Structures are given as C-alpha cells and as structure tokens.
Amino acid sequence: MKFKSYPWLIVAMLCVVGALNYLDRMMITTMRSSLVEAIPMTDAQFGLLTAVFLWIYGILSPFAGFLADRFSRSRVIIGSLFVWSAVTWLTSYATSFESLLVTRALMGISESCYAPAAVALIMDYHRGSTRSLANGIHMAGIMVGQSMGFVGGWLATDHSWNYPFFIFGMIGIGYAVILLFSLKDAPKQPSTIAQGLHQPEKVKFRAAVKDLLGRRGFIFALTCWSLLGIIGWMIVGWLPTYFKENFNLSQTMAGVYSTGYFHAASLIGVITGGILADRWARKNPRGRILVPVVGLCLAAPAIFLASHTTILSVAIGCFMLYSFTRIFTDGNMMPILCLITDERYRATAYGILNFFSCIIGGIGLYAGGALRDAKVDLSTVFQTGAVLLALCAFLLYKIQPTPESITVQQNDQKESAL
C-alpha cells in the first residue's frame, strides 16, 4: 500500500463510506407513508426516530473521536461501517415502533465513530498541498449520500419499507469486508518526528479535552462551528416553508428550489473551497483559515438580500451563493483544526465540534419553529442568521495557527513537492 496514489485511493474509499453513512441515516425520512402503513405510529413517534439518532450521535461524537485518536483509525472506520450496516440490515426485520427506535439508537452509536476517524485519517495521508481538497472531496461524497436519501422512499414504494434497509445493510457489510484488506493507517511522518512532535500512541480523554479547551484558537473554532450549526439547520429546516409562503409556490416546487439548487451549489462549493484553500496555503500559512472567512463574508449578505427580495430568481440566486460559499468552512474545518490543535487530539477535537453542532443545531431548528409561533416572520429569522454568519467570519479570522503547525506545514509542502 505504499504506491504514490494511495492517499487519493483513501479519499475515494472513504467517499463511498461517507455516502453510505448518510444514505443509511437519511432514507427513513423519505419512506414515511410506507413505514407508517406497515408499523402504525404517530407523527411525533416518527420524528423521534430521527431525533433519537441525532441526540445519541451528537453526545457520543467526542468519545468516538477519542477512540480514533487512541486506537487505529482505519479499524475504527471499518468497525463503525460494519456495525451500522449490520444494524441497517437488522432494521429490515423490525416489527414494532419500539424495535425501530432501538435500531435507530444503535445506528447513532455506531455512526458516531465514523466522521472523526475518517477526516483524521485523511489528514494523516494528506499533509501537504492537497489537504483541503482531499477533505472537500470526502465532504462531497457525504453530500452525495445525503442527496440520495430519496432512494429509500423510491425502493419502499416499489417493494416494501424493509427492502432498502436489507439491500444497503448487505452492501455496507460487504464493503466493510473489502476495506478490511485495503484500508490502512498512515505511516509515521519523518518530518513530524524530526520536529519532536511525535507523541506516544496512547492518549487520555480527560487530558485531550483539557488541552483542547485550553487553546484559544479551538474555542474560537468551537464557537464558530456551533453558531454555524444553528444557522445551517435553521435554513435547511425552514427554507422550503419560506419559498412556499413568500413566493406562493407549490410544496413540490418549494422543495425543488430549496434542495435541488441548494445542494448542487454546495457540492460545487466544497470542491472549490478545497482547491482555493490549498493554493492560498502555499503562500500564506493562514490560507486555509482565510478562504472560509471570505466565504462567510459573501454568504452573510447573500442571506440578508435573499430575505428581503420579492423576486424569486434573486432569492434562489442568493441562497445558492450562500450554499456555495458557506460550505467553504465545512471543507476546511478539519485542516484548520490541524493548525491549532495537538496532533494527538485531532479526532477528539472534531468529535467535540460534532457534539456541539448536533445539539445546538437541533436548538436552532426548534428556535425557528418557536419564533414562527410567536408570529416572527422567517425573513427576520434569516436576517438574524446573516448577522451570525458575519460573527462567525470574525471568529475564524481571529484564529492563529500554532508556530509548530506552521513549521510542520512548510516541511510537509516541501516533501510533497519533491
């Protein structure tokens, strides 16, 4: 596994895992009619199936990240894929709401282990001028899986609600077996050892959390990521309603404008942000920080204008610009963490960010509904989001890479050029 293209093969293999990760968790939301017909439940119970997954996923993310820092990242990824795929397969045999709820909880436990380990492994392999692009491509794979959630509803309509869970569960189990022989941890980097930054394999969770929370840059990143969780979930959750009510659209067309156009722009943006960040980082150590800052500075006025206009095409264009530039932050957050955290704690750091994003993001969804109940217009809600985006840009701009990370980054870029 020492051939030169293996770091990109790692990204390709993890793109498939990331797509399965989001497809398996999202497809239940697209088969409501088929599922409720087979297993009667209230709307609140149906919503709980997704909510319990999100809560458990978020709460366990820091501990899942710690596992990836303490043990083999590749084995954590493979184990996570195998377990959640087995749970997906078992879901097809559920016969009651209670059994469905248990499988969703188990999926939250197993899937929480994937993202921190995956992005950390990509960072281990892509240490030079390809770090942001590699992470962006992996994010694109995740977004493809998210956008393919409709496959669950389609297969459930043509067959039964059990069918997609059985099929994709078996696919995931099979793919986990393949990865067992092809996915490997990155070798130790000579440049890192030479700088005296190599640390013992074993890490402790309490020490990791204490170290991370003691870093000013990490606090800025954590606050920014939390605010972005509120804004992101709020816009995604209420954008279809905004289009429908403000422009008198049908439910179908409102859904097309708020998902099809939106996610297409995000998919292009996450790749573009990775390319721009890698290029800027060659000349400026803060390049991977500045690209998201510029993106948020464009996203904020785009949302503000979109919430004011009465012209549908302008609103669509502005929300697409937001989706295109806002995603620069997602594609570069792990590379930013590499600039401000101890190398031993990267996956734990990402897990902590995931925890706050999920928990606070859920609060954002609820807050949007509560404000509507209080007769607050969605335009005002989105304008508030624009202000928070500007605050996020300021927080990111205040982040400074550690001197050690700058030295390692320069050495890695020199090695990549050889």
Explain what the structure shows.
Helix content is 81%, strand content 0%. The model is unreliable at 191-199 (pLDDT under 50). It is mainly alpha-helical and 418 residues long. It has 18 helices and no strands.
Global mean pLDDT:
85
Distance between the termini: 20 Å
Label the overall shape. Answer: globular
Unreliable stretches covering 5 or more consecutive residues: 191-199
- Enumerate how many helices there are, as a single number: 18
Along the chain, the helix and strand elements come as HHHHHHHHHHHHHHHHHH
| DSSP strand count | 0
Mind describing the biggest β-sheet? none
Going by helix content, strand content and strand pairing, the class is mainly alpha
Helix content: over 70%
- CA radius of gyration is 21 Å
Give the DSSP E fraction (strand runs of 2 or more residues). Answer: under 5%
Jot down its keywords.
mainly alpha, 418 residues, 18 helices, single chain
Layout of helices and strands:
Elements: H1 6-26, H2 32-38, H3 43-70, H4 73-91, H5 97-111, H6 114-125, H7 131-147, H8 150-158, H9 162-182, H10 190-194, H11 205-213, H12 216-247, H13 251-283, H14 287-306, H15 312-340, H16 346-373, H17 378-397, H18 403-417
Helix pairs in contact: 1-6, 1-7, 1-9, 3-4, 3-5, 3-6, 3-16, 4-5, 4-6, 4-9, 6-7, 6-16, 7-13, 7-15, 8-9, 12-13, 12-15, 12-16, 12-17, 13-14, 13-15, 14-15, 14-17
Provide a compact summary of the structure:
The chain is mainly α and about 425 residues long. About 80% of the residues lie in helices and about 0% in strands.
